[in-house]
Amino acid sequence: MANDFFTGNKEFFPGIGKIKYEGPQSDNPLAFKFYDSNKMIGGKSMRDHLRFAIAYWHSFCGDGADPFGGTTHFYPWNKAADPMEAAKDKLDAAFEFFTKIDASYWCFHDKDIAPEGGSLADFEKNVQTITALAKERQNATGMKLLWGTANLFSHERYMNGAFTNPNFEVVTYAAAQVKAAIDATVELGGDGYVFWGGREGYMSLLNTNMKREKDHLARALEMARDYGRKAGFKGQYMIEPKPMEPTKHQYDFDTETVVSFIKNNGFEDDFRVNIENNHATLAGHTFWHDLQVAVDAGLLGSIDANQGDYQNGWDTDQFPTNVFEATRAMMVVLDNGGLGKGGLNFDAKRRRNSTDAEDLFIAHIGGMDTFALGLEAAYKVKNESSIPTMLRDRYSSFDTGAGADFEAGKFSLEDLQKAAFNTAEPETLSGKQELYENIVNSMIYGK
Ligand code: XLS
Ligand code: NI
Ligand code: NI
């Protein structure tokens, strides 16, 4: 349990203690109102249901810059002149935050934790050094790694793609980074390893051989899988879909696309999907649509918990505040029997103008409270509402008799035609969508 406050050499969030549950009546902005980690829901604690993880990149690296202006988040852990000293300070700040916010998991890219130095070899060495320190911090605090990954999109060498780059030399660099990031993930006992296809896609088909690029991606992931298993990685590999940004057309467009890619390549024993709300909505789906696609395929890996902006058409990566969305997501998660080795990773950033140190806490508290409410409501929908029965009944004509025979593949099209001629015009049956929606709301707001 990540319950013991870790004291590094310096305190980076002075004046903020461990965040506690104070209940819905509290007006303390630095307290949980709904996330009560030990509260049991259906025989499992909220902590174990939700498996919250903190994203290193947004929370300790993101500087608030946007295309119109530079840094607005100035971090005390970025002050040291020596990049390795700064990386160590950042690690201490991160573990201080993890324990104060009372999360159990964290996630990182290689480049988030260690400076690139002057060469690929330097970078690998730096990643190893910080990984060893992170392991000490994990042992001291009980924090665990949800997943690790390699950043194959920021460096200019990847501007035309990483594993899908038309230049083979770039592919070798991507592979070297992935090997080192898998090593770090194994060393830290990670439950997962993520491939988000950063720049794996294209800007123009005129200069792109899509078939070759996608084949290259499959070959590289196969090699990564085999290497990781050889190196002792027991967790789940995951692919994170996103339809666009940074490329115009990303190869891992949405969950359906990734499920097909996994199955077409025979990757289903090792690979699953890491689903991010804002990526699902960019693909024109709801969050829960993409989750359901993964669950139906038996391939739900983990969740990047954030939310988009309802008007903007890009990835705004905001902290989740929408309880209806969280409820719908948790309904699908409960259908799946839980998150397994996955978790709810806050791949979310404070707004550029949220510049107080406490804003990082407030943002996470909001996200954690939102999913706690979503979990409780989803549990009620599943166990106390009429929705499961209504949904089952809606398909009951396939449960017995001819309907069941049809499902079992016992009929030909001619048999169905004959059956139609023996049946009076079917009744029009209401879909009752508004009733379902009202029931979900009544479970959220209490009956
Ligand atoms: C970016 C992605 C990224 C992945 C990890 O849009 O969400 O943060 O989660 O590389
Ligand atoms: Ni993500
Ligand atoms: Ni995103």
UniProtKB/TrEMBL annotation:
<feature type="binding site">
    <location>
        <position position="276"/>
    </location>
    <ligand>
        <name>Mg(2+) 2</name>
    </ligand>
</feature>
<keyword id="KW-0460">Magnesium</keyword>
<feature type="binding site">
    <location>
        <position position="276"/>
    </location>
    <ligand>
        <name>Mg(2+) 1</name>
    </ligand>
</feature>
<feature type="binding site">
    <location>
        <position position="304"/>
    </location>
    <ligand>
        <name>Mg(2+) 1</name>
    </ligand>
</feature>
<dbReference type="GO" id="GO:0005737">
    <property type="term" value="C:cytoplasm"/>
</dbReference>
<dbReference type="GO" id="GO:0042732">
    <property type="term" value="P:D-xylose metabolic process"/>
</dbReference>
<dbReference type="InterPro" id="IPR001998">
    <property type="entry name" value="Xylose_isomerase"/>
</dbReference>
<dbReference type="InterPro" id="IPR036237">
    <property type="entry name" value="Xyl_isomerase-like_sf"/>
</dbReference>
<keyword id="KW-0479">Metal-binding</keyword>
<feature type="binding site">
    <location>
        <position position="317"/>
    </location>
    <ligand>
        <name>Mg(2+) 2</name>
    </ligand>
</feature>
<comment type="subunit">
    <text>Homotetramer.</text>
</comment>
<feature type="binding site">
    <location>
        <position position="315"/>
    </location>
    <ligand>
        <name>Mg(2+) 2</name>
    </ligand>
</feature>
<keyword id="KW-0859">Xylose metabolism</keyword>
<dbReference type="GO" id="GO:0009045">
    <property type="term" value="F:xylose isomerase activity"/>
</dbReference>
<feature type="binding site">
    <location>
        <position position="240"/>
    </location>
    <ligand>
        <name>Mg(2+) 1</name>
    </ligand>
</feature>
<dbReference type="InterPro" id="IPR013452">
    <property type="entry name" value="Xylose_isom_bac"/>
</dbReference>
<keyword id="KW-0119">Carbohydrate metabolism</keyword>
<comment type="similarity">
    <text>Belongs to the xylose isomerase family.</text>
</comment>
<feature type="active site">
    <location>
        <position position="109"/>
    </location>
</feature>
<keyword id="KW-0963">Cytoplasm</keyword>
<keyword id="KW-0413">Isomerase</keyword>
<feature type="binding site">
    <location>
        <position position="347"/>
    </location>
    <ligand>
        <name>Mg(2+) 1</name>
    </ligand>
</feature>
<feature type="active site">
    <location>
        <position position="112"/>
    </location>
</feature>
<feature type="binding site">
    <location>
        <position position="279"/>
    </location>
    <ligand>
        <name>Mg(2+) 2</name>
    </ligand>
</feature>
<dbReference type="GO" id="GO:0000287">
    <property type="term" value="F:magnesium ion binding"/>
</dbReference>
<protein>
    <recommendedName>
        <fullName>Xylose isomerase</fullName>
        <ecNumber>5.3.1.5</ecNumber>
    </recommendedName>
</protein>
